[in-house]
Amino acid sequence: MPAASSVEIRKVNKYFGPFHALKNIDLTIPPGKVTCLIGPSGSGKSTLLRCINFLEEYDSGEVRIDGQLIGYEAPGRKMSGRKLREMRRSIGMVFQQFNLWPHMSAMENVAEGLIRVRGMSKSEAGRRAAEALAKVGLADKMANHPSRLSGGQQQRVAIARAVAMEPKLMLFDEPTSALDPELVGEVLNVMKALAGEGMTMAVVTHEMGFAAHVADQVVFMEEGEVVGVDSPSRILHHPQDARIRSFLRTYRERNSF
Ligand SMILES: Nc1ncnc2c1ncn2[C@@H]1O[C@H](COP(=O)(O)OP(=O)(O)OP(=O)(O)O)[C@@H](O)[C@H]1O
Ligand SMILES: [Mg+2]
Fold it and tell me: What CATH number does the domain located at 1-90+168-257 have?
């Protein structure tokens, strides 16, 4: 079991042109814990998550993974592509869209990165891919192409693909939002099992049940700011901030939570 990373975000600002998308964000994502990011659409959740692996370039402040600055060598001086790729090797990401190769089997989708990025032999990558697929409950679907898998199964292949690289940190951006409601549970269960293994996870989600039952801390964002960071029970059941109360009221009107 690989060690779990911690993430320190300090005074991070991000602009899209004149638009201030992230405003002085301070946040610690502790190792081996699950941090859920919630908040209204457009509040900056995806942007913040993408700053953690520098898929989105923040303009000022610092993001550190295990103490090491990502994206910059020093303030204002970009890190080389090679160094950035090296740092990203310990970070897995799962998106709303599964991004699987349509012409490859589940097994080949998982093995591809191990062969190309890790330089593993085909047989070693195959063994590792089989293990990862078994872990997400797809031992019997390894030969299927994505077109012969349900959405929930495809997303589990995407999770297996990330996990097979043995990341120390997993980022999830609304991993169940593209799924039919009846398929959401199987993906959340796989994530819950990963959390149980002590993986550091940052999860942007609209699934308040997952945040309530699996998260160690919940971060509420609105208009580019972190409005609250607390335990799930305090944020979801005893929110101090009126903006959080208002968000949850609307959510409860639409969902059985
Ligand atoms: N590439 C971009 N160019 C310009 N504006 C952007 C870009 N990406 C995001 N934004 C803006 O930044 C804000 C935050 O976007 P972000 O995608 O982080 O929100 P979010 O909280 O993830 O929302 P959702 O719940 O809808 O996914 C939004 O107002 C969005 O329109
Ligand atoms: Mg988003």
Answer: 3.40.50.300
